[in-house]
Amino acid sequence: MSKQKTIRIAATSMNTNKHLLLALAVTLCPGSFSLAADKPNIVLILSDDQAWTDYGFMGHPTIQTPNLDALAKRSLVLDRGYVASPLCRPSLASMVTGLYPFGHGITGNDVDGGNDRAALDVPLREQFRQHPSFIRTLTANGYLAHQSGKWWEGSFADGGFTHGMTHGDPKRGGRHGDAGLKIGREGMKPVTEFIDLAVQQQKPFFVWYAPFLPHTPHNPPERLLAKYAIDGRAQDVAEYYAMCEWFDETCGELLDHLDAKGVAENTIVLYICDNGWAAASTNADDPNQKLWKGFAQRSKGSPYENGIRTPIMVSWPGRVKPERSKDLAHAIDLFPTIAAATGAEAPANLPGIDLMDADARNERTQVFGVAHSIHNMTVGDPDDTQQYLWCVEDEWKLLVRYAGKDTTKYRNVHVWDKAPARLFHLKNDPHEKHDLAAKRPGVVERLKRAIENWR
């Protein structure tokens, strides 16, 4: 027998044994393998109304988030992440489409129309669904996809999910998540059962976990509230702190279930928050700060850091190196990041980057975003209720006041801020107390030009 023939026979025997061993392993441990090993599972964890500072891993001195802290230790942590809008509905829409609000048309939470707002919202939702989304991209590539928690654009099926909780029917109170908002607060069973199903079917899966946490109503378990309710701390602050830890506990249940099913090693976990928040009492002593429906100004709904900044995490065991990065990151990056990780094709017009690409992060010098009126939208004219444009470059941040066509349409608390532009040095002034626009006109003009070129 020739030497080459002997080698071929040996190789064939090794390959046969390899396949037999793999088949045996799948039989014994079905949860350890997906249908296609090159398709990682994706879990997206979305916090709801949480300031960028309010985690253990971000250095908060009081709030305890041990599960997210543990996730951070095994993740690429981009603590200078930003969202496209400081309000949940447009913020989530930008994550899903990879577009800014003026690109996908969702600029606020509602179409102005009083009792008719549900009917007026229908054409807006239909318009939104014409845009590609990473959800539909994943399901088109063989993924099962589950929705739970916050979801504004109709039912889970309308959003392209194969499974989910939200019905989206206005006649049954379907708005911003409806039945899906029970997740976390009333247990994790719908999500864990979906993961079990996907593992059983050996399908790659996507989980949209967007619980109504730590969002109001702030009604944490008594055991957690007692932990944070101490003398000298405002009640609304104590309740919010307890809600942050409650949210963290639910994240721990989800992450533990991935481990229990043996799929954690082949699962990418992404973390982001939709927008910031701060308790009303935290600025009640400032005469320049008005209060708005239970939360402080310069937080949710505003273009300040407590409205738009969030840590962003990417965990992929063996593929993404755990580290802390000061690179600028953005919610619009989720679509290109997920597409790159799964081998899917993202639309060519997406302005975001793959967050796992260090070169792309290093080349980015600026990020941008907008803030619109909270409770009304003009269908087909996203600029109509626009209030601010902003740019972050290195340690500088510029807010530009934008006058829409009809300022009487503004229903946002931040109209009081009449300054045409505000400039902050974030390294020295991370909480934006000192406006430097008058002292640094050159920086203001340069960043204004950058905003004009972007917009």
From TrEMBL:
<dbReference type="InterPro" id="IPR050738">
    <property type="entry name" value="Sulfatase"/>
</dbReference>
<keyword id="KW-0732">Signal</keyword>
<dbReference type="Pfam" id="PF00884">
    <property type="entry name" value="Sulfatase"/>
</dbReference>
<feature type="domain" description="Sulfatase N-terminal">
    <location>
        <begin position="40"/>
        <end position="343"/>
    </location>
</feature>
<dbReference type="InterPro" id="IPR017850">
    <property type="entry name" value="Alkaline_phosphatase_core_sf"/>
</dbReference>
<keyword id="KW-0106">Calcium</keyword>
<protein>
    <recommendedName>
        <fullName>Sulfatase N-terminal domain-containing protein</fullName>
    </recommendedName>
</protein>
<feature type="signal peptide">
    <location>
        <begin position="1"/>
        <end position="36"/>
    </location>
</feature>
<keyword id="KW-0378">Hydrolase</keyword>
<dbReference type="InterPro" id="IPR000917">
    <property type="entry name" value="Sulfatase_N"/>
</dbReference>
<comment type="similarity">
    <text>Belongs to the sulfatase family.</text>
</comment>
<keyword id="KW-0479">Metal-binding</keyword>
